[in-house]
Each structure stands twice: as C-alpha cells, then as structure tokens.
Amino acid sequence: MQSAAPSAPFAGPFAIGTLSATDQELFPGLVVPEGRVLDLRTALGEPALTTRGLFERWDEELPRLRALAADVTGDAWQPLDGLRVHAPVAPRQVFQSGANYRQHVIDLEVAHRSPDDPRTVEEARAEIAAVMDRRAAEDLPYVFIGLPSAITGPYDDVVLPAWAEQPDWELELAAVISRPAYRVSVAEALEYVAGYTIANDLTDRATVFRRDMKAIGTDWLRSKNAPGFTPLGPWIVPAESIADPGDLRVTLKLNGRTMQDESTEDMLFGIARLVSYASQTARLLPGDLVLTGSPAGNGMHWGRLLRDGDVMDGSITGLGAQRTRCVAEGAS
C-alpha cells in the first residue's frame, strides 16, 4: 500500500524516521514539518549509521539534531514525497503491556464472560471496574514480550494469516528507549525514553487463550506475532516535544469509521511505571520499544473483526498518522 508519505503533522521541530528511495538502502532521516528530510548518514558523517545506532548515543546526538533541524536550507535536504517510509526503528526487544486501559479491559471482560454468568452486563461492568481501580492502586503492570519480526512499516499492507479467525486492531502509544535501563525507579524512568511513536498491536482473539491447555493461559506467540502484526511509525518524536504523554488522543478508524478514540489518561499504569517495571527483570536497550496497551474500541467490542480489504487509519496526538490495508493471505 506504500505510496508517497502523507504530511501528517507531528509535534516539535523534528522527528526521526527510516526511509529509502526506490531500490536504495534504508537510511535514518531527520524529518521536519515542512515535509523535508535530511539523510543523517551524510549529515553526521557516518555512512553505516542506522536509526537504532542513533539511539545508542541519543543524549550526545540530540543537540546536533536540534541544530540541523534549525536550518532546512541547502541541497542536502530532500522532499519527503516519493520516499518510502519504513518502521522508524528496528528494536532488539519489544515489551508489550496488556490490560492497561481501564475501559478496554472492562469491555474485553464483558465480551469474554461465560454465557452462564448470572450477572447483568451492568453488574459485570461495575464489578470489573472496581477490580481495575484496585489494580491501578495496588497491583503491578502486566508486561509480556513481542517479536521484532512482527514489525512492519506504517503504510505497508498487513497480511491476515489464513489461520487467524478473529484478527483485531489495537492502536497504542509506544515509548522508545534511549539508553540501557536496568532496575530504574519510576521517578527516573522517563529519563530513559528518547521519544514516542505509534504501534498497532494486532491480535488474533481466537488464539489468545489456549483451548487445549486452559491452565496455561494466554498464547501471545500465536495471537500477536505473525509477520506484519505490528505496524510501527511513521515517526519517532523526541520526548522533549511531547508535553504530556499521559494526555494524548489515540484514534483508530476502520474504513473511515472511528472505532477507538481515547486519551492515554485512561491508562492504569503510566509510561514511567511500565518502563520501570520492565527494567526490574530485563535490561532495556537503546531502540527497544515499550508498548503501553490499547484503549477501548477494539473489534471484539464492536463485533466487527478485520477482513480482506479493510483500511486502518491510526493517529496519536503529535505523532503523525499511519495507514495500513489488510490483505487476506493468498489474496491476489
């Protein structure tokens, strides 16, 4: 589906992307709102530089990026139109947060409740809401691991595997790590975040829970990690350009109809708590992603799952927008 990159606005004077000209190598680009791009391999004098390599010394390079973005004159800047936009970074690790939006969890619990549940829908929602409030106050985030191989570009087609019976959308805010983080506190966690981007964490609802081994619980490998199940980008916007990541609008439209439209304010656990929590067990590395969960309005809520030909438009305040088309496996 990739075509000329749209000119969706982003916050601040610049963002980071990964781009390529036709049949050319990928390059890390400094993108400015005027719709121009600077190849950072040339600008920084490093022919082998990658976007992930940039984040490995983010604190050092950030002042240079600010200076470069302040002057968009000169032949080194090229128009964004005509360039292919890829996923903005190739992470080594992807940390995904589940059950992190209050209304989303309530909707899912109600949708998946047993037919024999004696409670009315209203009673079930009230009880689940009380559990969510206690969890936010007393419990820990729920974080699991995703595969980098599931990541695809923000305008690429998404292939729906033939085995996926209930493919669903889940638009999310993603934090990008700037330096190694291990056992960092909540108070210092945001110091390890370089910026933010958009992720659509697709899920096959039919395979989330193991039917053959119910005691084991969720099967995230099967349900979330098909190739292309995580459209990412288009840009990584520096954290300094986002005034409050806890107050951004997450919006997904399916074929033009708004399905998700919620503020990150509805998150049970904010970005600092998620980053800190993940770092208590794992060492987070530069360029890694921490996905923060998806708000209410997924397909299970609407009773409408993804199918061949669907087009998803996802946007988050200040981060631009992505557009992906669903293609059934084997479809021409």
TrEMBL record:
<dbReference type="GO" id="GO:0016787">
    <property type="term" value="F:hydrolase activity"/>
</dbReference>
<dbReference type="InterPro" id="IPR036663">
    <property type="entry name" value="Fumarylacetoacetase_C_sf"/>
</dbReference>
<feature type="domain" description="Fumarylacetoacetase-like C-terminal">
    <location>
        <begin position="94"/>
        <end position="325"/>
    </location>
</feature>
<keyword id="KW-0479">Metal-binding</keyword>
<dbReference type="InterPro" id="IPR051121">
    <property type="entry name" value="FAH"/>
</dbReference>
<keyword id="KW-0378">Hydrolase</keyword>
<dbReference type="InterPro" id="IPR011234">
    <property type="entry name" value="Fumarylacetoacetase-like_C"/>
</dbReference>
<dbReference type="Pfam" id="PF01557">
    <property type="entry name" value="FAA_hydrolase"/>
</dbReference>
<protein>
    <submittedName>
        <fullName>Hydrolase</fullName>
    </submittedName>
</protein>
<comment type="similarity">
    <text>Belongs to the FAH family.</text>
</comment>
